[in-house]
Design a protein that fits this description.
- The protein is built from 19 helices and twelve strands.
- It has 446 residues and is α/β, with parallel strands linked by helices.
Length: 446
């Protein structure tokens, strides 16, 4: 099988896994592809379909006699992939017709071969115009920028048309690779220079002094810097959370939802690997990811505790600092997880808000008098962020917000990411990083 044909088959099967099993795209592609040579193209077209799914479906609709959702899942995936290649990569209609119709045989859908070929060959050269922006603003934005309508409606009410469009457009961009330098072993400028010496497009971050931004660099896990534990992949917004927490050497720290370990290991760095960090997570498999990162970075001050914080709290030690990077809707990371936006629902948001409240209550019991609790999410939803923090503070009068200190590289101006209430909030379209919320709460001395 030709490498591109194999890549198309892998992309199709990965999309089926995302739809049927709610698999993460990167994991699904790893299972569906056997050759490294096919991985780049397969990821490009599968991720492209997920980024632009609503717009692809809207463009396909006039070519079909029944809704796309009524078709067999492999047929639906093949048509979306064919449309993506035709519209975004300018692949000739005859090629996508031949390629994707032939894949139907491998999916045991020989009856669909002629249908897929016929539809693919009739694909237009340009996108179908979205609904009118004035008459149907929600439908327009949902189609033009391929986001669920319920999500668009929320953001439109909150920010207005222009900013909602900017956020959606930003979510559809391919995010750069962002690294955090392990300062226990190297310095950011050293890593920038090493990468640049090999021809890698690398530059210092804009928000975090430990960040290195890399463009079009391939798989960093194959680099010597990765294998030697000098770097870890972590968005700048996530790095700001640990900088906000500002743990001190020798302290006792609890990371209440630690996997995959980016913030946990960052806390250890800031503590100069001195003190004690307890990394908790509800899933043993996810804690394994923490352990792997800890070992690769050569960190010694972290121990592990499996379990739900709500039941673990009674057996954990009192801490100087507790970090609760809470389970959330994840709408701040959609540019990195294009598959996720099609799984999110308003009902999930309601359930998560209640869970976050319960976890906040449990986390607060672990903080000794005078200690701090940092609550964070990778969400842009107010219910999970500002409203959650304000509601919790109203019921806990012996806690106060501690505004962020000076942590931006080369400047003491944090106004761009700090709200009037002292909350940290980044947004993809404003700050060029993931959407992240964090607040540092200080418990009164008693």
């Amino acid at each position: 099988m030709h490498p591109k044909t194999a890549a198309r088959q892998g992309a199709l099967r990965a999309l089926l896994a995302v739809e049927r099993d709610e698999a993460v795209l990167t994991a699904a592609l790893s299972r569906c592809l056997t050759s490294e040579a096919t991985r780049g193209f397969a990821h490009e077209i599968a991720a492209g379909v997920l980024r632009h799914r609503a717009r692809l479906d809207y463009t396909l609709a006039p070519l079909l006699k029944k809704p796309l959702g009524k078709l067999d899942a492999p047929v639906r995936a093949a048509l979306r992939l064919a449309a993506y290649e035709r519209l975004c990569l300018s692949t000739p209609a005859a090629v996508v017709g031949n390629e994707y119709s032939s894949l139907m045989r491998g999916e045991r859908l020989t009856s669909a071969v002629a249908f897929v070929s016929a539809v693919a060959r009739r694909l237009p050269n340009e996108w179908r115009a979205a609904p009118d922006a004035i008459a149907q603003p929600i439908a327009h934005l949902a189609v033009e920028y391929s986001h669920p309508e319920w999500m668009v409606e929320r953001w439109l009410q909150r920010w207005g048309f222009a900013e909602c469009a900017a956020l959606c457009e930003s979510n559809n961009r391919i995010a750069p690779l962002t690294l955090r330098v392990n300062t226990l072993r190297a310095q950011p400028q050293q890593i920038v220079e090493r990468l640049q010496s090999r021809g890698v497009d690398a530059a210092p971050g804009k928000l975090s002094p430990l960040a290195v931004i890399v463009q079009n660099a391939g798989d960093p896990s194959q680099w010597p810097e990765w294998k030697d534990g000098l770097i870890i992949a972590q968005d700048e917004a996530a790095q700001l959370v640990s900088l906000l927490a500002a743990p001190q050497p020798g302290q006792t720290v609890i990371d209440a939802a630690a996997a995959p370990g980016g913030k946990t290991t960052h806390l250890a760095q800031l503590m100069n690997d001195s003190g004690s960090i307890v990394a908790c997570d509800v899933a043993a498999g996810r804690l394994k990811l923490v352990r792997e990162n800890v070992e690769r970075l050569g960190i010694k001050s972290i121990q592990w505790q499996e379990g739900d914080l709500r039941s673990l709290a009674a057996e954990l030690p009192a801490a100087d600092l507790v970090l609760l990077d809470a389970p959330c809707l994840g709408t701040g990371t959609l540019r990195r997880r294009p598959d996720a936006k099609w799984r999110k629902t308003a009902q999930q948001l309601n359930e998560l808000v209640q869970l976050q409240k319960e976890l906040l209550d449990a986390a607060s019991t672990l903080v000794r008098p005078g200690g701090a609790l940092v609550y964070s999410t990778c969400s842009v939803e107010v219910e999970e962020n500002e409203e959650q923090a304000r509601s919790w503070l109203q019921h806990h009068p012996n806690w106060l917000v501690e505004p962020p200190g000076q942590y931006s590289p080369g400047t003491d101006d944090t106004s761009g990411v700090v709200t009037e209430d002292g909350f940290l909030q980044t947004l993809p379209h404003r700050h060029g990083c993931d959407g992240m919320f964090a607040v540092k709460l200080r418990r009164a001395t008693e």
